[in-house]
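Entry 14. Ran structure prediction on the chain below.
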Amino acid sequence: MPSDIAISVRGLSKYYEFEHVNEWSLFGRRGRRRARSGRGYLALSDVSFEIPRGQAVGLIGRNGAGKSTLLQILTGSLQPSEGEVEVHGRVSALLELGAGFNPEFTGRENIFLAGAVLGMSAAEIRSKYQAIVDFADIGEFIEHPVKSYSSGMMVRLAFALQVHVDPDVLIVDEALSVGDIFFQQKCIAKIREILQRGVTLLFVSHGLNSVKSLCSRAIHLERGVVRADGPAEEVCDAYQNSMTSSSLQDWKLAVEASKMAEDGEALLPVGCLRGADGAKADPEFERRLSQRSGSGELRFTGMLVMDERGNPVHAIEQAGRVRVRAYLQAQKDIPDGAAIGILLRDATGVDLMAFNTDFYRYRLPALEAGRSYAWELELDLPLARGYYSLHCGVKPHASSGYFYDRCFNAALLEVTSNPVTWGEYGGRIIHAPASAGLFAIEQEA
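Output, structure tokens:
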């Protein structure tokens, strides 16, 4: 394997043989007999890829796609049926809660036991012991048997140990989802820190925002086969599209549920819909799109970002107000109740804001086949400087999995400087409070 490759997988397949178990009668001699069923399950089929040193790769796919099987083979806990796997350097893997821990031992004892299994010397473990304990932050429970730990405490200790091994390759599965949000943020920050040291990361998650934020590349597994391998944002978008339901039954249920409410409550006057026959307002729309899916019964034909005077713009100042206009054309008669959604992402692919007509109790009226329409929404965008993208979708009802049309990268927007000097700060969203002040607290007598 070339020295610049951390993980190499070639023609990897894993076949599980189903065993049929026969039990003797309850009134006869007790016993069990296993027999080959002649049937099995192909968990992985001819999987091949290489991961260069220092690259962060996300592994995504539905449950049962083969992700866990692949990770177990990479870590050596499972043998492949066919193919070859090479992993260069010290591997640290967080796959299952408490894997490698002895439940009867205390947290402290397990640090030394599991650390030795991971290849650390006794001196190395002693030198890093306090850092591991501080990161896990489980207090006095470090001296209690692990069997008394909650799942959150278990993952805290396991993650703290794995990241202090100083690995060359770090493999992280969905175990992090067990921890509370503060610990998750702490883990993500630690992963970013070790990535800066050139560690190779294989990150498995159903959280696509986390994958796009941490990883430059993603691999999509589906039924044991690599369906896509490429830039993280593109692969995640394609995966998201692949999960869209298009069944006729779902459509019928969604249309039935999309009927306008008859409770007499007034709809909020947010946005507007009007006829736009013959409009050719956005000739570059198709070229901008990176992904598209849907039935096509109702299609987006353009999306513009405009200033308050209605002029198309490609850049706004920080905390600016814009009007977002989406153009649609009905290919067939569309029942009333359809919902439009607009999603805003930052340059790293993280979803920041979502706007859906259903949020405002506004659902579209019936649309006529062959007619064009324009949906317009006025928004305040309290964004930091940088580049952003807008994505859109329209479906029979907000809760439906069936899309008429779904478009990624429908519009692009740059947020430029502001007359006010904001200085250096974290985050992508900025906000000026309605009021702020400092006041003295009177001391009690």
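Confidence is low (pLDDT under 50) at residues 29-36, 245-271, 275-279. Will compare against last week's run tomorrow.
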